[in-house]
Amino acid sequence: MMLEGKTALVTGARGGIGRAIVARFLREGARVYAADLTPRGSLDAHDDDGSIFIKQDVTQEVDAIAAMDRVNAESGQLDILVNAAGIEIEKTIEDTTLEEWNRSFAVNATGTFLTSKYALPLLRRAGKSGASASVINFGSYDGFIADPGLAAYCATKGAVHALTRAMACDHGPEGIRVNAICPGYIDTPMLQSFFTGDGSGGGGKSIDQLQQAVRDVHPMRTYGTPKDIANLVNWLASDEARYASGQLWVLDGGLSAQVQQMKL
């Protein structure tokens, strides 16, 4: 097992991608703290998966402190941090309110900052133990290019990309690796919401037509699954990735490799 003896904390752990990451970490032998707003999360699914639930609103400093205090008391160090909590608002900047803009940054960017900030002492302790600690942030291919109607989301993911590089430079000497995964279209509740929202630019198409159009625009003619993301997260968390740091790992089925993409 690739993560045997390691302790991990995953934010957004009860969402589609978060649950897949938690499940993979558990199979690989890790002790996993699953942090989210509720035990059942956005999928409204059972939470008896063997992980340890922590109630955490990533926008709240007090919650980040409390989460790390608990990990410290129960485990003594943290080997892996995955900042997977995120939201998406489907609007142009003209239609986005200041409250929505600030909320997007609070969850996607500030949440990554706060959780990482208070995890650092525990990660630093793990980094001194002989093997590197690993932080995995969640950017997006939308941090490089843009889908229509996702202005605030794109801006937050660009911020996460820059923060990831800065963290890798600052904390690499302490034995802490920092990377970001940048997914494309992944089959999650967030993607299904996009299909029904104004940002999809669907032009009256049915959900099935939009889903097929998304598949067809990919060179691989499909979009990804949470398990695809969890596979890469698992590798980056493991000692096999000991020399991987400061990178933005795009996982999008070849979508952003194309010269021109269909507008959906």
TrEMBL record:
Record keywords: Oxidoreductase
InterPro entries according to UniProt: NAD(P)-bd_dom_sf, Sc_DH/Rdtase_CS, SDR_fam
Protein EC: 1.1.1.233
Pfam families: adh_short_C2
Domain of life, source organism: Bacteria
Top EC category: oxidoreductase
Gene3D superfamilies, per the entry: NAD(P)-binding Rossmann-like Domain
Example of a GO MF term: N-acylmannosamine 1-dehydrogenase activity
Sequence similarity: Belongs to the short-chain dehydrogenases/reductases (SDR) family.
Protein name per UniProt: N-acylmannosamine 1-dehydrogenase
Organism: Roseovarius aestuarii
Lineage of source species: Bacteria, Pseudomonadati, Pseudomonadota, Alphaproteobacteria, Rhodobacterales
